[in-house]
Amino acid sequence: MVALDLEFERYPGERSFGSVSLFKYKRQRDGETQYAAVKTSSDENAKSLYKEFQILSQFKGCSRIVQCYGNGVKEIFNDKGYVEYKIAMEYAFGGSLSDFMDRFKDRKLSDSMIREFTRMLLEGLATIHRHGYVHCDLKPENILVFPSSVYKNGAWIRSYELKISDFGMSKRDGDTQWWQPRKPYVGTPIYMSPESISHGEIGKGLDLWSLGCVVLEIYTRKKPWWHTNYELEELMKCYEPLFPRNLPCDAKLFLMTCFASEPDERKDALTLLRQSFLHGDVNKFTNRQMNVKIDSADDFTLQLEKVSQMLSEIRTMC
Predict the structure, then answer these.
(1) What pLDDT does 283 receive?
(2) Domains and CATH numbers, the chain
(3) E-strand spans in the chain?
(4) pTM
(5) Residue 137 annotated to the active site
(6) Pairing of strands 33-41, 83-90
(7) Which one of the listed residues 43, 137, 295, 298 is annotated catalytic?
């Protein structure tokens, strides 16, 4: 990673850790103007920013993880004489997934787009988990949208790529040293899993539960737990968000897996990539990036999926 000669462009706004500003720079190989998002934090949040940079540095070149520029966290004095800490990252012209949904009528995305977005997020989680991390705060605001164009059948077609961002709350898989009685969970409560809320468990199952919340939110166009006054006590009893009745059957089965009460029953990102909700294909990313051999499902697994699907339909009818 090389240092960038950044020129201030505009100031998009505040975030929980500090602020994000848009900068532009000249690409070294051809002089073309490019853009970068610069995260800035005060001394109070510097530790989180350093941690995020260290984690992102391990994901250089990963297509589903937002990329970080530069050689480290930059310390500067602002115009008031206080020290600020900055890192430069890829700029997502599509904004967050939440921003992206707001641009559609009634925030409604097509079913095919939802499935493709889910696949991308699973690819990102597979990479994160393979490196031994748990994101801990997966939600639409922490998912970035990158518009692109694909040339197909003699015409340019608009497409979108998703990347996971905001690793300031990420933990090592199985880490318990962070836990405190007054702070029993790390992420955003309505996207957290029962075991992470009740006794601070940090594992890949947490991210898969959060993924289920994100997918459900895209379908319903509402925050998880929209049907009730959300209380942490409900989640600690292993209740899951309500599924709408018009949800496709394979989507229900997928979400049932994400919302399984036991973390191990949520499987893992690679296994979920094989579900019929994603058309049952083992995508090229899995074979190329993860280098994992995946065998076809046996008869027992197929029967189990059929039973789970039946249970899902019964649940949504109640």
Answers:
(1) 45
(2) 7-90 (3.30.200.20), 97-317 (1.10.510.10)
(3) 7-15, 18-26, 33-41, 68-77, 83-90, 133-134, 143-152, 155-164, 171-172
(4) 0.82
(5) yes
(6) antiparallel
(7) 137
